[in-house]
Design goal:
Elements lengths: L6 E5 L5 E2 L14 E5 L37 E2 L4 H7 L3 E2 L3 E6 L5 H12 L5 E5 L4 H10 L7 E4 L4 H11 L3 E5 L16 H18 L2 E6 L12 H5 L2 E7 L5 E9 L7 E7 L2 E4 L4 H4 L10 E8 L2 E12 L8 E4 L3 H15 L7 E6 L12 H13 L7 E3 L2 E2 L5 E2 L4 H10 L4 E5 L13 E5 L5 H9 L1
Parallel strand pairs: 6-10, 6-11, 7-8, 7-9, 9-10, 15-19, 17-18, 19-22, 22-23
Antiparallel strand pairs: 1-2, 1-3, 4-5, 11-12, 12-13, 13-14, 15-16, 16-18, 20-21
């Protein structure tokens, strides 16, 4: 007797599965539960192992873990120093890399450039289920890439793609995108839970058994998470997300999972007419040096995902003409700014809470969750209120507690080194982030432990 198909329900936002339909998913979103039916049989298979089940290569031989042969990872240069950085030093042979991002973020632009560079190392196949061959070709020519070694295939049939890859000996495979891929023996439509899961499983096994390096383009949901079942994230060896700010040509690439490296690195790109260009020194984007020195300006050494960025913070404190003082902030948390004003009044005797105060983080950087920006913001507000100019070669970082103490922040040494590398001469930092080994000729490092010491800081920097 044939086994009855099992019906389940999945949230189209977070990918969580449920045994029955619900109006609201546990992720908090309403009306996103959709019905799907699992396949009667698990059709995970590769060209040489049609009945094989599981997500990876099988090896039932029992060995002592300490005696397992040491296989050195082989990495390939993607042609992008920033992409290499996020991947941990290059793309690993026989790995599966997931690249997600919003429409227009630049996923296909980045990967056609990557494919062009990888095709010089070994045979590369680019498969597209969303664009025609001529569209992909036109993009490659517009970006002035060498596309002479790239083969292209318009098909989403995963089993057909795997047969071609094995038969032709391809070393690199790019699938654009996994949501358009399908297993022809399954009745489900492409993009469904079962199709995405089974397609990714077959491609993962292709990579492990035949040494093919696979890159999968993934769509994202409205909430910004990777679309599809959560098992897709488990199957991939590395999962990256390409992010872009509104009305910005700059892109950041972050890895939320990496089996061959850490996930603290951040890659920065600029979208130009010639494609995604690496930004080797992202501080040059966000930091405005050499401009007109004025009160209320302060440089901040931030650390975003393990990468240090130098950013300008501006503040304007002016007399209020209304019943309630105005608070305006771009890139900073309004509630935290109010807390810092209370600390200044209570712990330092600086009463500016009745003034109109405006805060701006230059270049639209979002620091709403970055507590390390407390110290430079306070310095900028005091500078504006006193009309005292801090030198443009002065930079600061540190968190401020309710008792007025200046607390240390992670990656203090990296922040100092980046500031020195960008020619800052005065660095104000938490005392517990200070170390004698940070001392550098020509650079003044000022460790502080409380906001009560900031008056002396102004005296030293202006002397």
């Amino acid at each position: 007797m044939a086994k009855k198909e099992k019906t389940q329900y999945m949230c189209s936002e977070c990918g969580e599965t449920h045994q029955r339909w619900l109006g609201q998913c546990s992720c908090g979103v309403w009306n996103t539960i959709i019905e799907f039916k699992e396949a009667k049989t698990v059709t995970q298979r590769t060209p040489n192992a049609r009945q094989h089940k599981g997500y990876s290569k099988q090896d039932a031989k029992i060995e002592n873990l300490s005696k397992v042969s040491d296989t050195k990872l082989t990495r390939f240069d993607t042609g992008s120093s920033e992409f290499n950085r996020v991947l941990g030093g290059g793309i690993v042979e026989a790995s599966v890399v997931l690249v997600a991002g919003d429409p227009g973020a630049g996923k296909s632009t980045l990967l056609i450039k990557t494919c062009s560079n990888l095709s010089k190392i070994g045979k590369a196949l680019y498969t597209s289920g969303e664009e025609s061959k001529s569209q992909v070709r036109d993009r490659g020519l517009r970006l002035q890439l060498d596309i002479g070694n790239i083969d292209i295939m318009n098909s989403g049939d995963v089993e057909l793609i795997c047969d071609v890859v094995v038969a032709e000996g391809y070393k690199f495979l790019i699938i654009d995108s996994i949501q358009t891929a399908f297993v022809s023996s399954l009745p489900n439509a492409p993009g469904g839970v079962t199709q995405v899961k089974e397609s990714a499983s077959i491609l993962n096994r292709l990579a492990k058994e035949h040494g093919v390096t696979v890159i999968l383009v993934c769509h994202v949901s409205k909430s910004g998470d990777m679309a599809g079942p959560k098992v897709l994230e488990h199957i991939g060896d590395t999962m990256c997300k390409l992010e872009c700010e509104d009305d910005s040509k700059y892109r950041t690439l972050r890895a939320s999972k990496n089996r061959f490296g850490d996930t603290t690195e951040v890659g920065t790109f600029a979208m130009t007419a010639k494609g995604m260009q690496d930004i080797v020194n992202p501080s040059a984007i966000f930091l405005e040096k050499g401009g007109i020195e004025s009160s209320g300006n302060m440089a901040y050494s931030s650390n975003d995902g393990g990468r240090t960025l130098l950013i300008n913070i501006q503040s304007l404190v002016t007399q209020s003409h209304g019943e309630n003082p105005v608070r305006g902030g771009v890139g900073f948390d309004y509630k935290r700014m109010s807390m810092l004003l209370a600390i200044l009044q209570n712990r330092m005797g600086v009463n500016i809470g009745g003034n109109d105060i405006y805060v701006n983080v230059v270049s639209g950087v979002n620091l709403t969750k970055d507590v390390g920006a407390d110290l430079p913001l306070v310095l900028a507000m005091i500078s504006s209120n006193n009309d005292s100019i801090l030198s443009s070669s002065t930079i600061a970082f540190g968190e401020i507690g309710l008792s007025g103490e200046i607390r240390p922040v992670p990656s203090g040494e990296e922040r100092v080194k980046e500031a020195i590398r960008n020619d800052f001469k005065t660095i104000i930092l938490p005392k517990r982030n200070y170390s004698p080994r940070l001392e550098t000729a020509g650079v003044t490092i000022i460790p502080v432990s409380s906001v009560s010491e900031l008056h002396k800081v102004f005296d030293r920097t202006n002397s």
